[in-house]
Design goal:
This protein is mostly helical and about 210 residues long. It contains eleven helices and no strands. The longest helix is centred in the middle third of the chain and has 18 residues.
């Protein structure tokens, strides 16, 4: 936290001395991320909001998109899904405007997660599917695995365990290919929960 404050302070000083507002925005962004990691969402939101305001003043569209996404994530972590969805939708539109394909994919995934939390399976499925299509085009395997997991959750919640396991296993294979150990662990846990739902306890323990 101390090193973050020092870096942010240097950025703010540079911004003042050189009349370069983008450095101020970067400082607020760093502080927002730092407070978010500590779970202080009120402070994090304050810094991300200041970052957004500066980026709007200097017409930094990429910076605007990033700040909107960060604010959306804070609201999601606070359980305010309406505000989170609003900011993620704004984030999506801005990413489309600047043709940021990776950003578009992330926006689609985040919106899918919100709909999943709201038990709107149809919309969640749509956004996860869109995310997968874009990530296939850009070759972002980790993003594909994440949305496959989302689809697996949808089908598990619907009681379609065969399809749920199919998507979880597809995600598992991708995570193995890219060596994502955390992704592998999550996929294996998800597959285990499906076997438990099916009362196939030997497989769940496998």
């Amino acid at each position: 936290m101390k090193s973050t404050s020092v870096l942010a302070g240097k950025l703010h000083t540079y911004a003042t001395e050189n009349k370069y507002p983008k450095a101020n925005a970067a400082g607020y962004r760093i502080q927002g991320i730092s407070w978010s990691k500590q779970g202080n969402y009120a402070k994090s939101l304050s810094y991300f909001t200041q970052c957004l305001e500066i980026n709007r003043q200097v017409f930094d569209q990429k910076g605007i998109a990033g700040a909107l996404g960060n604010i959306g994530t804070i609201y999601m972590n606070q359980g305010d899904y309406a505000k989170a969805l609003d900011h993620f939708n704004q984030n999506l539109e801005m990413n489309k405007k600047i043709d940021n394909q990776r950003g578009i994919a992330t926006s689609l995934y985040n919106i899918g997660i919100i709909y999943l939390y709201q038990d709107n399976d149809l919309k969640a499925l749509d956004y996860f599917t869109q995310n997968i299509e874009i990530n296939k085009k850009t070759g972002y395997s980790k993003g594909i695995a994440g949305s496959l997991s989302g689809l697996g959750i949808i089908y598990k919640n619907q009681g379609n365990y065969v399809k749920a396991r199919e998507y979880y296993e597809r995600g598992l294979e991708i995570n193995k290919e890219i060596g994502d150990q955390r992704g592998i662990a999550i996929a294996l846990t998800n597959i285990g929960t499906v076997y438990i739902r099916q009362e196939n306890y030997p497989k769940a323990l496998d």
